[in-house]
């Protein structure tokens, strides 16, 4: 780890905070056409991995929605939230803020958001790549130098869009899928074994035996077997933007309120609402047939296609 890294991180974070303040001032100074945000229940400490089959949505509109959005954009430290709220899960506030701007104001706002997003990407790289630290060691390292910093909130990009015809909201409930071969999995397990660490609730010796059992299982499989990691991702809010002139719909993740810029003469987009999430009543528009598979290492979400 290079000597100047922490100072680089500090300078980048200061730049993010300064420019975020200017971004929020620009949104607040612009003429508000419409605003709609959806407050989700906070994730409490210790419940980060708890399934969420039902999520209740609380809608706010107008100036109150804009104020909540501005607070959300600037929410980078745990001191800004309730003590019982998780510091390992980022706060989500889906929604949309529509503002009327001149062509010059629009250009400046887009340029500012681009600069902020580049600084956010740099800050993430400094932590996740340049430190050279494994994921488990990053949290204490960041909090040693930046007490209370919420890295997930800090990494999040800002989304500024030109006028569209409509913005609707929904939920995405997906899996992360990564295809592997037998060699890939053996390499991954051997790396875990060679690290020589234990993992709660197992001792170092018990953990080594467990990984060795998994290695034996994988080595017994045919060398050409098809393996994949299929891991569920927590449900997330999404936005669908429709532009009729291009007959194009764009779907984006929506953990932050979108900013829609409307020039003089452009009409206000039609804004939809985010419904409550209920896992038991999901309607799939298109659900492709999955290959039958057997879960062989549950802790890794590793499946063997039959």
How would you characterize this protein structure?
This protein has 306 residues and is an alpha+beta fold. It is 36% helix and 25% strand. It is built from 7 helices and 15 strands. The strands form 4 sheets. A 5-stranded mixed sheet has the order 3-1-4-11-5, with helices on one face. The model has no long low-confidence stretch (mean pLDDT 88).
Features:
36% helix; DNA replication; alpha+beta; Tus_sf; 7 helices; five-stranded mixed sheet; globular; four-stranded mixed sheet; 306 residues
SSE string: HEEEHEHHHEEEHHEEEEEEEE
Number-wise, the strands total 15
Protein structure class: alpha+beta
Mean pLDDT: 88
The separation of the N and C termini measures 45 Å
Shape: globular
Radius of gyration: 23 Å
How would you summarize what this structure contains?
InterPro entries: DNA_replication_term_site-bd, Tus_dom1, Tus_sf. This is DNA replication terminus site-binding protein. By secondary structure, the chain is an alpha+beta fold.
């Amino acid at each position: 780890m290079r000597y100047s890294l922490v100072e680089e991180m500090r300078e980048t974070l200061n730049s993010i905070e300064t420019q975020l303040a200017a971004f929020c001032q620009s949104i607040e100074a612009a003429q508000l056409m419409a605003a709609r945000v959806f407050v989700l229940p906070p994730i409490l400490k210790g419940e980060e991995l708890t399934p969420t089959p039902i999520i209740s949505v609380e809608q706010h509109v107008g100036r109150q929605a804009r104020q909540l959005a501005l607070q959300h954009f600037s929410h980078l430290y745990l001191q800004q939230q309730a003590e019982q709220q998780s510091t390992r899960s980022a706060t989500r506030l889906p929604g949309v803020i529509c503002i009327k701007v001149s062509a010059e104001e629009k250009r400046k706002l887009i340029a500012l958001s681009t600069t902020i997003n580049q600084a956010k990407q740099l800050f993430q790289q400094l932590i996740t790549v340049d430190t050279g630290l494994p994921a488990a060691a990053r949290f204490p390292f960041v909090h040693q130098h930046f007490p209370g910093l919420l890295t997930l909130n800090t990494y999040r990009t800002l989304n500024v869009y030109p006028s569209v015809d409509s913005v609707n909201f929904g939920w995405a409930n997906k899996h992360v899928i990564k295809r592997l071969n037998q060699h890939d999995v053996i390499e991954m397990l051997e790396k875990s074994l060679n690290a020589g660490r234990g993992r709660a609730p197992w001792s170092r010796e018990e953990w080594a035996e467990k990984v060795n059992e998994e290695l034996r299982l994988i080595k017994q499989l045919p060398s050409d077997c098809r393996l994949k990691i299929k891991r569920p991702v927590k449900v997330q809010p999404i936005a669908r933007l429709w532009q009729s002139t291009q007959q194009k719909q764009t779907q984006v993740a929506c953990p932050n309120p979108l900013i829609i810029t409307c020039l003089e003469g452009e009409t206000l987009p039609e804004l939809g609402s985010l419904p409550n999430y209920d896992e038991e009543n999901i309607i799939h528009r298109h659900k492709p047939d999955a290959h039958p598979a057997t879960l062989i290492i549950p802790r890794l979400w590793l499946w063997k296609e039959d």
